[in-house]
Design brief:
The protein is α/β, with parallel strands linked by helices. It contains 20 helices and 7 strands. It has 4 domains: 137 residues, 3-Layer(aba) Sandwich (Rossmann fold); 80 residues, Orthogonal Bundle (Helicase, Ruva Protein, domain 3), CATH 1.10.8.60; 90 residues, Zinc Finger, Delta Prime, domain 3, CATH 1.20.272; 82 residues, DNA polymerase III clamp loader subunits, C-terminal domain (post-AAA+ oligomerization domain-like), CATH 1.10.3710.
Length: 464
């Protein structure tokens, strides 16, 4: 057995050992843990006051602390804690928990927290079995789900519970969590040192998932221990020598480096700082590759961002911008594709979200391009900022209030729908900008047809 393996032998995983014992130790989720919030109230309410506790449904991505919150609440409130998984539990298991909870309440005055993980996997019949216990206060239900409860939890259960949304942990939260795991006796107890680059790599790779960060840290500690040959200095007594003459100082704790992180997770660590130059360089190359119609390069930079732990919502937003700015009217469908990809990422999360992101990237890179709409709004804004605007023509002004007609508002206005072709000769721009052309369509893609139609429209508007 290697020295590093000895450190972890017989121990539960680091992520489990480091679960907070109180809400004060919970990383992130500050929006749910303010004084007086439902979760704080639930944790501080006397365990015998079952009727005053409300059931909650925790919705959030993996590794954001759903199980942690449930256990911390149970410990803090002194309630009995029972955990079921929707993957293995059935209606019979639920009913047994409810009966036992009722007995505990009536005989011993102790309320029960039932933590149900992955409630979205429960059928309607299984969820129905929860209703009597929740409604009558036999249990305080804390249910966890990674799926939208509006689609996966029955309405009667939703109406009897508070829906609370958990957010991915921020970089500062993950950093504090990792630091505590290195130092805390429940964790690595200071038997390793984590250098700054390795710490940043762990935070980046975790992508908001605390469990992922701690799992990678534990594996990297084992790799670092193997490289150093020991995780703890051996004493003379351990070697069977109790004399002081040959006493050797304890070995220095091994240092976990970024290379150890890379070995532990079996992947290359990209030089990528979400707040640094690399972040801007890669996203710049990504957008320019889409604009330049190089789908292969665009997919490459997309992969780099995903693997580096870039926020997928940031990528999706940039695709939406690119669809409007670089493609525009040459393919109006592109904006719909980009928005759909953004919605899909928000709905299904990662890692599956990489697929709609890739689809949108390839679509945008391979379709026709035009920045005419982008140029049009920029030119119009430039005129407005430079004072290039005049009064709205009298015939276009609002004529729906009593004094409007006396002022001449709306006089001479021609209703376009009265024309057989739906267009009439009429001035719409202010006098100062008459004849100004902001939108100059290209001959690319769908804009070719728009260009021909627009030329005809402008001739009719001008009376030609």
């Amino acid at each position: 057995m290697t020295p590093s393996a000895a450190l972890f032998q017989g121990q539960t995983p680091l992520a489990v050992r480091m679960r907070p014992v109180s809400l004060d130790e919970v990383a992130g989720q500050g929006h749910l843990l303010r004084p007086g919030s439902p979760l704080v109230t639930l944790a501080t309410t006397d365990s015998s006051a079952a009727g005053s506790a409300v059931s909650v449904i925790l919705w959030g991505p993996p590794g954001t602390g759903k199980t942690t919150l449930a256990q911390a609440i149970a410990r803090s409130s002194g309630r009995r804690f029972v955990e079921l998984s929707a993957i293995t539990a059935g209606v019979k298991d639920v009913r047994e928990v409810m009966q036992e909870a009722l007995t505990q309440r009536d005989l011993y005055g102790q309320s029960t927290i039932l933590f149900l993980d992955e409630i979205h996997r429960f059928t309607k019949a299984q969820q129905d079995a929860l209703l009597p216990g929740v409604e009558n206060g036999w249990v305080v239900l804390i249910a966890a789900t990674t799926e939208n409860p509006s689609f996966s939890v029955i309405s009667p259960l939703l109406s009897r519970s508070l829906l609370l949304t958990l957010r991915p942990l921020g970089d500062d939260d993950l950093g504090a969590l990792v630091d505590r795991a290195v130092a805390d006796p429940r964790g690595l107890g200071g038997r390793v040192v984590l250098d700054d680059e390795a710490r940043a790599a762990l935070v980046r790779l975790a992508s908001g998932d605390a469990r992922r960060a701690l799992t990678a840290l534990e594996a990297a500690a084992s790799v670092a221990g193997d490289d150093a040959g020991t995780l703890e200095g051996r004493t003379d007594a351990e070697d069977g020598d109790t004399s002081d003459d040959d006493a050797q100082p304890a070995a220095q704790p091994p240092v976990i480096t970024a290379d150890h992180i890379a070995q532990a997770v079996d992947r290359a660590l990209l030089r990528y700082d979400r707040q640094g130059d690399e972040h801007y360089d890669v996203i710049s190359a990504f957008i320019k590759s889409v604009r330049g119609s190089d789908a292969d390069a665009a997919i490459h930079y997309l992969a780099r961002m995903i693997e580096a732990g870039e926020d997928p919502r940031f990528i999706a937003r940039r695709l939406v911008i690119s669809a409007a700015e670089d493609i525009g009217m040459a393919d109006p469908q592109a904006l719909q594709v980009a928005v759909a990809a953004a919605d899909a990422v928000a709905f299904i999360g990662m890692p599956e979200g990489r697929i709609p992101l890739a689809e949108a990237t390839i679509y945008l890179a391979t379709t026709a391009k035009s920045n005419a709409a982008y140029n049009a709004i920029n030119a119009a804004i430039a005129d407005v900022r430079a004072g290039g605007f005049g009064r709205v023509p009298m015939h276009l002004r609002d004529a729906h209030y009593p004094e409007a007609k006396r002022l001449g508002h709306g006089k001479g206005y021609k209703y376009a729908h009265d024309s057989e072709i739906g267009i009439v000769t009429q001035q719409y721009l202010p006098d100062e900008l008459r004849g100004r052309r902001y939108y100059q369509p290209t001959s690319h893609g769908a804009e070719r047809d728009v260009s021909a139609r627009l030329e005809k429209i402008r001739r009719i508007l001008d009376g030609a």
